[in-house]
Design a protein that fits this description.
Layout: H1 11-14, H2 41-47, H3 50-62, H4 68-84, E1 87-93, E2 105-107, E3 109-111, E4 117-119, H5 123-127, E5 128-129, E6 149-153, E7 160-164, E8 167-178, H6 187-207, E9 216-230, H7 231-235, H8 238-243, H9 268-283, E10 288-293, E11 299-304, E12 307-308, H10 309-329, E13 332-335, E14 348-357, H11 370-389, H12 391-397, E15 419-420, H13 423-434, E16 469-471, E17 476-482, H14 488-511, H15 517-532, H16 544-553, H17 561-564, H18 571-579, H19 585-632, H20 635-658, H21 667-695, H22 706-709
Parallel strand pairs: 1-8, 15-16
Antiparallel strand pairs: 1-2, 3-4, 5-6, 6-8, 7-8, 9-11, 9-12, 9-13, 9-14, 10-11, 14-17, 16-17
Helix pairs in contact: 6-14, 9-10, 11-14, 11-15, 13-15, 19-20, 19-21, 20-21
The structure holds adenosine-5'-diphosphate and magnesium ion.
């Protein structure tokens, strides 16, 4: 069996719940029992025989394959721990290309004769599982005749217990691959990209005179937005149930214009739900930290402290899962869709990203010595170069059908990828490029006057909320992710493309003439910044002017998912992913196919649902209303309503025609058909239906209205 990982997993990664970078220390007891449902490093230390514990850490550090006897000991300890906490089953918990997590539960108990059962769990079962995986999307990687996929334990993300009133489930974070070794999940490429970035960054650090770090790992801190609504309204809306968003709904008289919700006091039932969810997350070792109301009524946000990308990404999936399941206990439903309500702010997920060494330094922290400054400028220049070169790929990494309602809709960044550096940092780069700065600015950095960078503001006014990719003091914030998305792929893209840029800059640094490091770095940074600064933009990303300017600068503006997805298989994407062995061409093509298919399938479900609700619920309501008007013989009202009803009937027919897919059209072309024909026909139906909602008798209108769904808590 081919090794799923390329290589190298470190103890630092394993201890990502704490140790090297994250501020959370699992070994500290606390009254909320942080991490009590995690088979954490502390639990392992306590429960594994000393030599087994040490061998496991060593194996993880060196990235060698686990031998079976070691796995048997770990499995034994894990099982005993899980059973003591009430677990009856275990599962390999993985993230197939569906975007959500998958699990297949197996009981620990095996019949042992004479009507008894024995709890068993071997190293083999821990390391590898074989789900009947023929129904997971593969994009053609795996023909059905070789439908087997296998799951393999990821020891760098700790196992955990999911509690249920009737028992508990041991979840083993796992990678999922085809029998021939191709990645079929979101985790494998993420791990590979973390390894790639580490190798590139370590080489760069050595060139920059830092030989102490042995591993660099990427970090992620996501900010998750979501809606909570009363479940009664949810179940009365077939569109929400089927598609996760409302396909109809006139604007309520009161929207979020009053801004009385944002950061307002949290309604009691909602707060109870949040606290319950947070408690569960804390037990699972997810370091949740902040919560608040968001802009739209009924919208909230939850954010954890950052962790390494792999664990952070697993924890993000768990957070979404628990938000959804906990809401139900409180008679609420959590909506993770990017745009559940037209005309109301949608939900995104900010992805705070940085790189840190196993010696505890953050490579994107400007620091306050010239040495640190030099390192920072080098890595920062690499990020700028990566984002400029792979704009299209980054855009594609956040593409899904829900996002098409959000990106560029003046509530979220536009579909144009650009970087906000902040005025001070931009000045620094400009000064390096021009070789001159004024006496008050740092520009004069690097031999031209001021020896060090001024402190760059981490908080406060120098923030640009409209930028898709902003420097925020010691990290970059990729703000274009959708609320329902896994973090894995956008971070895979960031890690891989930045690894490539670091190597490109390192090559230049290695061959730069002279022996003054600061001067050499300055020259490399200068050249890179000059070539890539077109991607830096400090103004208002929502403005029309920016769209024009971006076009002049030659930046990509990929407005819809079908426009963005081909970037996944562009020459530059294939080259970068291939060179770093993160995703092969075949793996990339399979992802492209899966994402295209998901787009048109979801569009089609929305279109069919729109047609059915309009024809079987809304049109009849409108006709009943018209009958009332006719019976009362109020012709003025009839003249007003009749054209709307006629129009709706016609629009429904149009939509039904569009819902018949043309013969022989498939793949991207089908996605384009869905976008250009089905979604536009849906809009026409909706427009008339929403007008009718405002005139039809309230007791006849079959769908709960925005004014109810959004405001009744
Ligand atoms: P801000 O003022 O930008 O909101 P915070 O410190 O509150 O700054 O961080 C916001 C988010 O960024 C949090 O989710 C946090 O965990 C994350 N974050 C902070 N530092 C890092 C880092 N080095 N790498 C990744 N994410 C980080
Ligand atoms: Mg943010």
């Amino acid at each position: 069996m081919a090794s799923i990982r390329q290589k190298n997993v470190t103890a630092a990664q394993w201890s990502s719940n704490g140790a090297a970078l994250g501020p959370v220390d699992l070994s500290q007891p606390s009254n909320i029992a942080f991490g009590e449902n995690v088979f954490s490093l502390a639990v392992q230390r306590q429960r594994l025989p000393k030599d087994v514990f040490q061998r496991l850490q060593r194996t993880l550090y060196s990235g060698e394959a686990l031998d079976l006897s070691l796995a048997d000991s770990v499995a034994q300890a894990m099982k005993d721990w899980a059973l003591e906490q009430g677990a009856t089953h275990f599962t390999h918990w993985f993230q197939p290309l569906t975007g959500s997590t998958a699990e297949k539960h197996d009981s620990f108990f095996n019949p042992a004769g004479e009507g008894t059962a024995l709890a068993e769990f071997s190293g083999k079962e821990l390391i590898q599982g074989e789900p009947d995986a023929s129904s997971f999307p593969t994009g053609g990687v795996r023909a059905t005749f070789e439908a087997r996929g296998y799951t393999a334990w990821d020891p760098t993300s700790p196992a955990f217990l999911l509690e249920n009133p009737n028992g508990a489930l041991l979840c083993i974070p796992t990678a999922f691959a085809s029998w021939t070794g191709e990645a079929l999940d979101a985790k494998i490429p993420l791990l590979r990209s973390m390894d790639a970035l580490s190798r590139s960054a370590i080489r760069a650090l050595q060139l920059l005179g830092d030989a102490t770090a042995t591993r660099v790992f990427t970090t992620v801190g996501p900010e998750q937005e979501y809606f909570l609504i009363d479940e009664q309204y949810f179940f009365e809306r077939p569109d929400l149930v089927t598609t996760g968003r409302t396909l109809f709904g006139a604007q309520p008289p009161k929207g979020h214009e009053l801004d009385d919700h944002y950061f307002g006091s949290i309604p009691e039932r909602v707060l109870a739900c949040m606290m319950d969810c947070e408690r569960q997350l804390q037990k699972l070792g997810v370091p949740v930290k902040t919560r608040h109301n968001e802009v739209a009524p009924g919208q909230y946000e939850i954010a954890p402290v950052f962790e390494n990308s792999n664990v952070g990404s697993d924890h993000q999936q768990l957070t979404m899962q628990l938000l959804e399941s906990t809401a139900r206990k409180y008679g609420l439903v959590c909506l993770l869709h990017e745009k559940p309500f037209a005309g109301v702010n949608g939900s995104g997920k900010h992805n705070n990203w940085s790189m840190g060494t196993d010696t505890g330094s953050n490579l994107l922290d400007p620091g306050d010595t010239p040495r640190e400054n030099i390192k920072f400028l080098f890595f920062c220049a690499a990020v700028i170069q990566a984002v400029n070169k792979h704009q299209g790929l980054l855009r594609a990494s956040v593409a899904n059908i829900g996002q098409d309602h959000r990106l560029g809709a003046n509530e979220a960044p536009p579909a144009i990828i650009s970087i906000f550096l902040g005025a001070d940092l931009e000045k620094v780069f400009e000064a390096i490029e021009s070789g001159e700065g004024d006496p008050h600015t740092p520009g004069s950095f690097l031999g031209l006057g001021t020896p060090v960078l001024p402190p760059l503001p981490k908080h406060g006014g120098d923030r640009n909320r409209t930028s898709p990719f902003a420097f925020t003091g010691n990290k970059f914030e990729f703000r274009a992710l959708g609320s329902s998305m896994s973090l894995a792929f956008p971070n895979t893209v960031l890690n891989t493309t930045v690894a490539e840029a670091i190597d490109e800059l390192s090559d230049k640094l290695a061959s730069a003439p002279g022996d003054d490091l600061a001067e050499k770095v300055s020259a490399v940074v200068k050249e890179s910044y000059a070539a890539n600064k077109q991607v830096c933009f400090g103004g208002d990303n929502y403005s029309e002017d920016w769209h024009e300017e971006a076009e002049q600068r030659g930046l990509k503006n990929l407005r819809t998912t079908p426009e963005a997805l081909p970037e996944l298989i562009s020459d530059s994407s294939i080259a970068a992913f291939g060179h770093y062995e993160v995703l092969s061409k075949r793996e990339l093509e399979s992802r492209f196919e899966v994402l295209v298919e998901q787009y048109w399938i979801r569009a089609n479900i929305e279109a069919e649902t729109t047609g059915s609700i309009a024809r079987t619920m809304l049109l009849p309501a409108a006709l009943r209303h018209l009958a009332l008007i006719d019976a009362a013989d109020v012709s003025a009202l009839g003249d007003e309503v009749r054209p709307l009803v006629d129009g709706l009937a016609t629009a429904i027919k149009e939509l039904e025609r569009a819902n018949h897919h043309p013969e022989g059209v498939e793949g991207l072309e089908l996605a384009e058909h869905a976008r250009d024909k089905q979604l536009t026909a849906m809009d026409d139906v909706r427009e008339l239906a929403d007008k009718l909602e405002k005139v039809v008798a309230d007791d006849l209108w079959p769908l709960p209205k925005y004014s109810e769904i959004l405001f009744i808590k």
